[in-house]
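Throughout this chapter, every protein is written as a compact record of paired, labelled lines. The reader may check this reading against the record printed directly beneath this paragraph:
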Amino acid sequence: MPYKRKDSPIWWASFADQSGKRVRQTTGTTDRKEAEALEAKWKVEAFRARQWGDIPNHVFDEMMAAYLNGTERDRRARSNEAVIYHVKRLRKFFSGIEVETLTAANVSAYIQERRMDGVSNASINRELEVLSAAFTWSVRELGWRLSNPVAGKMLKEPEGRLRWLSRAEAVTLIHAAEQEARKAPHLAPLITLALYTGMRRGEMLWLEWSRVDLHGNLIYLEAHHTKAGKRRSVSMNTTARSAIISQARYRSEHCPGSRWVFCDEKGDRIASVQRSFNTACARAHIEDFRFHDLRHTCAAWLVQAGVPLMDIRDVLGHSTVKMTERYAHLAPENTRAAVAMLEIARHNSVTHEMKKG
């Protein structure tokens, strides 16, 4: 019979698979009758596979329920919300379809429908990435015999926006954030840390004191903390370190036992800064600026300071230097120096010819 875990309202099934091994698998539903029906279905399929080698097909909903449960611990909360949102979109089109029968043509039809809804290529790609990941995971973890229908179907995306602040604008923004100290004492340190480390908002809001090394001036991020899914360490300069120390003082005064670097008076993690950030931007008269643009600003400053792109890649935690190359144009002095070499070469050539004559 289906059962529940103490920490979840979802029903789980327990049965012997085709090899006779005991399997405990989420049904992905809070409805007991639906869970009982799924468990009975899986038991029959396992029996048929053991007795007659009859490998059953699986419907889209079953695959997604297994994928979401099997990967939940590997995703940060914000990422998990996004994945669930994309799955809801996908279910409207693929629900009830056997995944073994899904083809590239089905994916093309989905793309066409989403385009008719006015959805951008970038948004469609995020949905297709989740679908592709579910197929890959099901093959690797569940041993299902599937071909990934998303292969080769990703759409071309326009170059993303690139908005960044000058040094003077950054000072103005931090000062404006300090004016919000009564309602949001964490805002100015958070903005400062973003500007001087390039960390993502989620990486900072989920930052725990156990991963802050003030002696080594380092912040440690494990794979599940980063967008790229790779462990990295973040170096702190004196400005970034000061922002962290200000949070340490706040913690010592209000919530000594809190595990979170950015927390409220009760020690609970700050979940969102959208409203206070928008207020600070308005106060500073900075328009068309998002929190993620603080990361762009850090990258722009590094490029303008002459830091090599490979080093900037490592600071930002990009998977490849190609992602970092979008900032290369912010150092025009490099190209000026390059084309200046043409003038030097021309001058040397003319001088050489004159001497020969």
User: Anything to note?
Assistant: The chain has a mean pLDDT of 86.
